[in-house]
Amino acid sequence: MGERWAAGRAAREVVPLRELAFVPAGRDALTTVLDQNKARVPDLVPLRMQRMSASPWTYYRGAAAVMAADLAAAPHTGIEVQLCGDAHVLNFGLWATPERQLSFDLRDFDETVRGPFEWDVKRFLASLIVLSPAKGPAAVRAALRAYREKIAFYSTADELRIWYDVITADQLLSLFAPEDASARVARKARRRTSAGAARKLTHMLDGRLRIVEDPPIRVRADFPDEAFQAYHDSLPYERRGLLDRFTLVDAVRQVVGVGSVGMRVHLVLLQGRNGQEPLFLQMKQAGPSVYEQFLGPSPYAGHGERVIRGKRQIQAASDIFLGWAGDYYVRQFRDMKVIPNGELITPFLVPFAERCAHVLARAHARTGDALAIAGYIGKGRRFDEAMAQYAAAYAEQTTRDHAELVASE
Questions:
Q1: How do residues 86-120 score in pLDDT, each as one tens digit?
Q2: What PANTHER family does this protein's entry cite (predicted)?
Q3: Hey, what long-range contacts does 20-23 have (CB within 8 A, 24 or more apart)?
């Protein structure tokens, strides 16, 4: 254990704690954003630009590549974890475990790759201030304290204790004062299933169930049938047997998120053998992680596998239908997912940020060395000061970058 702690302390020679506050200047964020459009579906590029231009917050969500370049512009600690890669505050949410219980976890892994732990922490902290300049600084301080405390706990915890640690929905919902909050969210989660999606998104056409188009959000487009077969073959044997009980009946191209707009995403509808049970899957294209050009390529043959392998490492419990096919990854659509929105969490941003920090610390402890991280952080005062300074400065930089994008239109 002493060697692991010492490795963390030694990282201070590479990145002294005060240098965590460094934010690069003189870079070309606009070119980075526009260059990403080259790999997108051309007719969706204007929608991506529209969504990113809406506010500094939506810009931040879509500009992970900009921040990756900024983070890589300075030395890093070399204390590696499996990065979420886009750990902003709204990329934490409620998920259904295979046992159909709700847990609170990270939810977006398009950029996941192994990398220095502090990059995830910085992306998370800066997001708090971009989302809420008023409440963000207090949320940053609370999140830093919670992250340090959880890393200190995990640094001496048994490995299985770390692996099995789950944050339940009740632990999260205790933040939101009304006593019936848990019951309301549980009811909402039960509606966010394939059956609930079928009621809203399908109709009968010529005697067959079809997904309702809603241009440009859902439109007919060529569907990669061969990729779906490859996805089937990526599943564990018993899950393949389950999928075989369903028949693919329809698929449309779908627009999702902010940063993902323009990537090829398909909403896929299957029906069970009784002809009544729907199953919606989302088949999403992934490009290289925005960090790979700085950290080196991932070891996987396709980016779909990179995303799913990272997701399985980080999340406490994952979707039973997770799989991949080349640069596509597949997951259930909705499946009791409850995603927070900024207006809901901003009044509770400080305690919400603490819960997110707990999740992030657990992810880093599961996939890296919590003792080395604790050794680097030390008592925490200088770490907290530098990281809080970084978060505030990067939020200001994001506002300037957003203004530059708006002015370019």
A1: 999 999 988 777 777 778 899 899 999 999 999 99
A2: DUF2252 DOMAIN-CONTAINING PROTEIN
A3: 20/118, 20/122, 20/383, 20/386, 20/387, 20/390, 21/385, 21/386, 21/387, 21/389, 21/390, 21/393, 22/74, 22/390, 23/70, 23/390, 23/393, 23/394, 23/397
